[in-house]
Amino acid sequence: MRNTGDIFMNKPAAGAAHAREESESAFDFDPDVYRTLLESTLAIPWRIDWATMTFAYIGPQIEPLLGWPQDSWKTVDDWAARIHEEDRQRVVDFCVSQSMAGVDHEADYRALTRDNGYVWIRDVVHVVRDEKGEVESLVGFMFDITERKKSEQELLDMQRRLEALSFEDGLTGAANRRLFDRQLKTEWKAACRYGTTLSAILIDLDHFKQFNDRYGHIAGDECLIRVAAALGKAGRRPRDVIARFGGEEFVILLPETDAEAALYLAERCREVIGELQIPHESSPCGSMVTASIGVGTTTPTIEASAREFLTGVDRLLYAAKQAGRDRIVSDTI
Questions:
Q1: Average pLDDT over residues 230-251
Q2: How many CB atoms neighbour CB 21 within 10 A?
Q3: Which among 105, 102, 322 is positioned nearest to 204, based on CA atoms?
Q4: 38: pLDDT confidence band, cut at 50, 70 and 90?
Q5: What's the start-to-end Cα distance of the chain, in Å?
Q6: 94, 254, 263, 331 - which has most CB atoms within 10 Å?
Q7: CA distance 217 to 301
Q8: Which domains occur in the chain, in start order?
């Protein structure tokens, strides 16, 4: 390795040379002191010769941090090979383009350790030019930002959990009305744009007030939890939304689903609720919990509205109740 003071102060531009002369005069510059300062900091100093793309210097701090010996950092290929494969192309392309343009820059990436782990690094790079303005070398510092990245990730995870909770029904774990309304609006716009169908299923547990009166509200909550779980296993796809609509009502939003497929899923929902065999001795519909279901399908247009569609599905649910409950009523809207 070359002398640290020579490496970092070699071939400065005219202005930099003048500044160095003033600095040396004012502080009685000593290369050994400079080396000590560089090698005692937690940051890892380095210098790359631009013409040969080789390391002129890298601080000894690199070995305790990553495990790779100081003298193993010979070329930029060694640096690139020790970047996590998921970050490598992005970081290399960015740093090369910025360096060629003569622009100071910084990059965050995962550096591989010798024992197959990784450390988050922030590389801060300064481009050194010669008297002609040509790129002569790159000098910089590597900083270990692993703890900072962990804190950022923890904060991001917390934000995601809070967001998920804001869209989740606190009792059943199904989506809540807020999420349903948002997705209905989104899917309605998408269906208008692409001319696809949209279906919705409204499910109301029959005579649920009588259930609560007979078995108590704790049992009623447990019933809702079990029904929500059963509906979640009835055949939903990734874009489908199963939400608690309010009280003992659930709604299922079905993008790109025709009337036949929606009716099939509604029948399956009615079956899985029946398979739970939850006793309901106070129900005129039978001895077990049952459900009335309305199923509506439409091809959205900009002239119509999602609210009107949902009102139409609610009317179908009401028709199922009026017809004696424990049944399905479906139609196109």
A1: 92
A2: 12
A3: 322
A4: low
A5: 79
A6: 254
A7: 42
A8: 4-150 (3.30.450.20), 167-332 (3.30.70.270)
Could you identify the residue written with the tokens 């169908």? Answer: 197
pLDDT, tens digit, 9 for 90 and up, residues 214-223: 999 999 999 9
Distance CA 315, CA 296 (A): 9
Helix, strand or coil for residue 156? Answer: helix
Cα gap 231→251, rounded to integer Å: 10
Distance between CA atoms of 269 and 3, rounded to whole angstroms?
76
Q: In what order do the strands lie in the sheet containing 118-129?
A: 54-58, 44-49, 135-144, 118-129, 105-112
Instruction: Give 157-209 pLDDT, tens digit per residue.
Output: 887 777 766 889 999 999 999 999 999 999 999 999 999 999 999 999 999 99
For residue 248, what are its two tokens?
Answer: 């003992």
> What is the pTM assigned to this prediction?
0.58
Label residue 131 left, alpha or beta by phi (over 0 means left) and psi (-120 to 50 means alpha).
alpha
Tokens describing residue 272: 């899985």
What's the confidence (pLDDT) of residue 30? 58
CA distance 188 to 95: 44
Interval 99-132: pLDDT, tens = 999 999 999 999 999 999 999 999 999 999 999 8
259: exposed, middle or buried (C-beta count within 10 Å: 0-12, 13-18, 19+)? middle
